[in-house]
Please model this.
Amino acid sequence: MSKHHVSTTINGEPVEFLCETQHSLLDALRDELQLTGSKEGCSSGDCGACSVIVDGRLVCSCLMLAVEAEGRQVDTIEGLAHGDRLHPLQQRFLEAAALQCGFCTPGLLVAAKALLDRNPQPTETEARYWLAGNLCRCTGYDKVIRAVLAAATDVQEGARKA
Amino acid sequence: MTSHGHSNGFKVVGTRPIRPDGVEKVTGRAAFGADFSLPGMLVGKVKRSPHAHARIRTINVAPALALPGVKAVITAADLPEIPSEESFVGEGPINFRDLSRNCLARDKVLYEGHAVAAVAATSSAIADEALERIEITYEPLPHVIDVEAAMAPGAPLLHDDLFTQGVEPAPTRPSNIAKRLQFVLGDIAAGLRAAEAVVERRYTTQPVHQAYIEPHACVAAVAADGQCQIWCSSQGQFMVRAYCAKLLGMGIANIRVTPAEIGGGFGGKTLVYLEPLAVALAKKSGRPVKMVMTREEVFRATGPTSGAVVEVKLGATRDGKITAAQAVLKYQAGAFPGSPVQPGCMAAFSMYDLPNVHITGYDVVCNRPKVAAYRAPGAPIASFGVESCLDELARTLGMDPLALREKNAAREGTRTAYGPVFNEIGYIDTVTAAKKHAHYSAPLGPHQGRGVASGFWFNVGGESSAEVHVNEDGSAVVVSGNPDIGGSRASLAMMAAEVLGIPVERVRPIVGDTSSIGYSFLTGGSRVTFATGMAVVQAAEEVVAELKRRAAMILDVSPDAVAWKDGAAVPTESYLGKFDPLSLATLALKAGRTGGPISAKASINAQGAGPGFATHICDVEVDPETGKVHVVRYTAVQDVGRAIHPSYVEGQIQGGVAQGIGWALNEEYIYDGCGRLENPGFLDYRVPVASDLPMIDAVIVEVPNPRHPFGARGVGEVPIVPPMAALANAIFDAVGVRLADLPMSPPKVLAALTAARN
Amino acid sequence: MPRVILGGEVGRRYAGGATEIAVEADTLRHLLLELDRRFPGLGRQIEEGMAVAIDGTIYQDTYVVPLRPESEVCLIPRIAGG
Model:
């Protein structure tokens, strides 16, 4: 079984990897590239723990073939912070205690980033429906939503200052 | 041990610092079980039974072994045969024969998904192919899923050596009823005769899964000399070590278990499934083996909690005083005995001061996965019945449901139905706080209703070890042996910081592996902040005592002259002389000169965990056209003793409530006529998502537990106990229909509404 | 002398139906030894399968608890959590 060669961009960096036909993007991220921040919770696109952003669109990486990443821009949790500067979403999650076990957290953060990229000042209801594809079993979502709404304001203020 | 006071004069305890492991988690760098890799690692996979109940006639693994890339195949024949006996290895009794047979079936398969063989291969695809090639012939047998069907005479029997315990005379014929229990207080017949109002109803619940988002995962490596290393996410690395040792016939000293971060457990990871298989495969193949369950496997083969039948009868006089409380609880245990019917019986009426109580419980096996612990095991099911029935009693008497609870509330000195008398407890405080809360008197809209319910959990203590080391710059490391499933690491650091008198950022908590820290009982039972916290405080106090001695040496004064305040050695009040404070950092620098590194350890068996109580208020809106129940508002009041880190206490409460709501409204296992699970995935096993829930108001009440240095009680389990009844009571309030069968999903609600209209 | 309250089934199986007995002992360990002496098997059953509530506080898997002359010791099933 010969492998496929894929050239793509991950978190802004050009990346190449080899993969088999049936490998998902999640498999490639975790096993070929050791980017284990995206998690496998269900492999059927129902839990959102594997969420990444591909060409600006929120995607379950378990539902995308690795070969489909060819020529695309992929953003994962590992690219959310810049060096030691956390994204406001990450900072707010920490301050609001919006994580307990932390397993769903990377997926939630990526999904929340995709939300704010598209809707900079969401209401609570908009945030809840957008994030309905990210299952969390620990928090009951209360502190997660609060953190996302607070981060939205942070991002807006940062944009105003810039 | 000194008590650190029951006032709010704390510097660290009660604040909300950022958790020390937080940055790793929000950047995706924290390592969970499936994130580990070792060079040369093989992929392990499990072959599972397609039948709900069958005899295993033949197993032929040769075709799988012949496949290039397959390095090992195991079946039950590769595990030592264990006689049926109950061993007491911590939270037991554990029947290791049953656990072994659950990990790999021997003679019979008892549920669809039951593991029969496992392979290790050089790739996932080859492992899958190898599983296909294993040839197994089965003789299917009739199966039984439903608890009462399993109890009925003539039901298919799972074990021909299972005889009902707790029945006199001891039965001579095997049964699916593993145990019958009874708890009796007073005279139930007299209590019922004295009642002026009697309410009786039958409630049913379905099995639900803990549904942690992280599937089970581990990596095992065995060296040529038999030394074994395991990395896994679990609720207890010492439990994994002990269970693997027992199931594989290995010495405990030859196994080292490193806890990975754990992606949720809720009780479902307090036992082993993959680890013994991974070790056996690693041994046979001579290479490390990684095993990760798929979501489907998690549903088909790991413990849900019981489904049950709960029959409740309550009698009271017109003034609301309950004179009689009776319950019959029939719980499914799954394939092997061990449902949580016993704690269910014990917790059912514990919120109340009742003179006449009679509780009967049945532990019943059936062809479903073996049940595992799930947050306050047994209690949510019993309370669904009892708290719903109390609501019906309140309506019959024309009484406010909180007033009814207040009238019968357990307090200090109340005798429980399972025996002991309560010490100081905070139940009535939660009822009072609920009554006073704005939620309780807020107006309701059309199709809306309000329900209340109470809950209780024992909380446990147990063995914990901790070490506190002072670093050369005056910062500290706290090592403990408990995986952190809810933010306990932060609480432990905070308690140590409070005792040492230094900022919490200067205390680094870590979770040690089984070779690096003394034995610690697993994370569960709401015990870590309580028991491991106690050990941490004890070790920190010993460090402080040592620091005072070192200060005395440096200052050349008597040790009696030295006190510890705000992280420094200062003169005691009675000391006549003076000296400037000597900070922890200064003392740390001089540690070598004054005697050596400063550290202390504590290994304890913590007792006296205080019980937890809660009262919840829930508002729902019911859509009369679809039967959908929308949770509009939720308030959870809980006595936590003392909130060490209030954000994580609130988090536990909110998370438990969310699970209870899922249990109440949507979650259930759906089986076909052959006993096969039809919804082993998150699409059709519907847990609450962000758009299902409102903000959850967690109200913390503090009635300190005198047995903990900071007054903490366990908090994690109580919050899942009230929601199911709170929702059922709210639905009744909204639409006048009593739902007694969980889950209260839209089709069921709609059917009940339609029936009521006709 | 501390009073020991036995649950129905335990009393029937080991103590001939007794539900409450007085036992001379000053620690839990001594109590268990004394119970085992008077009702063979009872001490071991408690030690391995049960918990005790002494004056309301639950103790599990431990010997190291002092008893007062007025102590009430209640035998209860083991508690496990999730």
